[in-house]
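Q: Got a minute? One more chain.
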Amino acid sequence: MRLKALAVWAVAGGLLLGCHVTASAQDYPTRPVKIVIAFSPSGAIDVLGRFIADHLGRMWGQQVIVENRPGGSGNIGAAAAAQAAPDGYTLHFGAQTLAVNVTLSPTTAFDPINSFDPIMLVATAQEVFTVAVQTPFQSINDVIAYAKANPGKLNYGTPGLGSSSHLTGEMLKLASHIEMTHVPYAGLAPALTDLLAGHTDVMTANLDSVFAQLGGKLKGLAVTSEKRARELPGLPAIAETYPEVVSTSWFAVVAPPKTPPEIAGKLSRAFAEILREPEVERKWREMSLTPVGGTPEEVDAFLKDEAARWRKVIVSGGIKRP
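A: Always. Here it is, folded:
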């Protein structure tokens, strides 16, 4: 009888708990929501994070704040978000460093891929392989031919080791069997300055960051996406010659592990609604972004695929942090 009574109470308790979770999801959010960004203020990810936070706040009638937690190549802020309570009140707005750091900057604090519940892939950003206008290169094939004829003489600048720009350069080296010297900088601005001054030869950069200078001080030679960019239809994709060289920056929303499915679903629907707003669509076009969306399951598959792709590049290229 005692076991039967306990079983009845366990079932009743489970039903009550289920009702509580459902009610909590319906009411969510009832207090401010925090979005952690693992980088300093300014930059595309910060602009996007704050733009989304503003729209979420208006949608919910609740404050949504952005907290910048830079350091550790993105691991410090991401770890703080991963270790937060799984209640939907702390989210992480992350970039491809999540997929890169699994291999390049592993940490015992958390697993950048498996320590989160995916919510939505918000956008991808086109990147362009560019050179200063005074260089003789007119195409990506010119660059590769020069590198093969002059081993080790070509260098490429990037915003830093492990950046998308860096790993795309390494991906191209592996695919085309050329040698280029990596010149890392402390951010995009000094890297661009030295490219324009002729101190470095080539560079891969986010399209939005160089678009205004293309056709002026800079020449775009190719894009790194799978297909040509709508903004630059005359530029080929490197993948047309080297199919394995595909690289886009991306931005995704993830939550601490074991976030209740009802809350995760509500978040996913909220972000999907935001991506359909005309003002958001205009902002994405201004920043040369492509909205993505997708289910949490699709985002999870995407993140794992990205981690595997960059692991291959990092290991094959022998890339290590000092």
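A: The longest helix spans residues 2-27.
Q: Perfect, thanks.
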